[in-house]
Amino acid sequence: MDRSRGLAAGIAVVILWASAFPAIRVAAPALGAVGLSLSRLAVASAALLVLACWTRPRRPRLRDLPLIAAAGFSGIAAYQLLLNEAERSVPAGTASLCGSTMLHMPMTSGD
Question: Which tens digits make up the pLDDT trace of 30-47?
Answer without folding.
Answer: 998 899 989 988 998 899
